[in-house]
Amino acid sequence: MLLLSTLLTLGAATPLAALQTRPADAAAPAAQEIVVEGQRSPKETIDAFVRELTPARIGGQLGRFEDPLCPVALGMGDNENRLVRDRLRQVAAAVGMATAGEHCAPNLYVLVGRDKKEVIHGLDEQFPALMSGVSRKQMRDLADTAGPAVSWQILDRIGADGMPLAMAKMGADAQPVRVVRSIGSPSRIQQQTKVKFVATLIVVEARALKGVTTRQLADYAAMRTFAATGATVGALPAKSILSLFDDGAAPGEAPASVTWWDFAFLKSLYASSGALTASSQRGEMNRIVAKELSKVPQEER
Q1: What is the pTM of this model?
Q2: DSSP letter (8 states) at residue 64
Q3: How do the domains of the chain map onto residue ranges?
């Protein structure tokens, strides 16, 4: 971990003095408001918002954390790293995710460096476990992604009941394969397995952080790492912290934190069944998002 911290700190363009922290960030109390902005939208907008943030192949499944969250932020000053880490824990707890104790093994990394390509290549050389399952082509695509931020997940597949898959051989000379130990049969909607995030990472270039608060950075990272929202999300049909690094946008024009839409989306992902197909889980998520938004006064959305 020390080597990783050193790698990222040396790669930073500045000591992150450009990362502005507002007074509200310094306090970071447990009762701090999680969501602050949003607007009302009809069912079609809810459907579009959820669909845009849940890319998956036909018949595929959506992934999420199944183990308690243990975030770490590296590449900034100690205070900024701590504020981002604590904010991630706070948002996670608010949307229904389990969080690990203080002395845990990290499974979410927010990495700030001078150049995202340098950071990705440095991880591949010195910490290959953090690039597990990422092919050379995918690595090149990540490094060449437009914009100052890129994220990816290290995935595993577990039984629908949360149990690990077993290893079995179908013959004496056959290669071992993973099999489901759970009892039950898959259906068109319900699967016998689900996708688990083993770890998730986001790399942000220091140049993009001028005027960005630690709360904005942490909340943006939450939306990119708590869910596999994809390398780019484009123009969303509702207000989101994901607009923070849009081309031509200033940090002051972006939401100050996760919006009600973001909050409802994350809560729906972790409240719905991960054993469903993506299309079926989206339907369940749409209903949860609508329910959450209905609790918010119209003028506050």
Answers
A1: 0.81
A2: E
A3: 2-19+31-300
Other CB atoms closer than 10 Å to residue 223's CB: what's the count? 24
Residue where the block lists tokens 């990472």: 201
Bridge partners (DSSP) listed for residue 153? 200
One DSSP character per residue, 146-176 reads SSSEEEEEEEEEEETTSPPPEEE-SSTTSPP
Closest CA to 64 of 144, 138, 158, 141: 158
- pLDDT tens track for 153-193: 998 876 766 556 444 444 455 455 444 555 555 555 666 67
In contact, 237 and 49? CB cutoff 8 Å: yes
Q: What is the pLDDT of residues 227-239, one digit of tens each?
A: 999 766 668 889 9
Contacts of 104 (CB under 8 A, 6+ apart): 68, 70
- Secondary structure of 242-278 in HEC code, one letter for each residue: HHCCCCCCCHHHCCCCCCHHHHHHHHHHHHCCCCECH
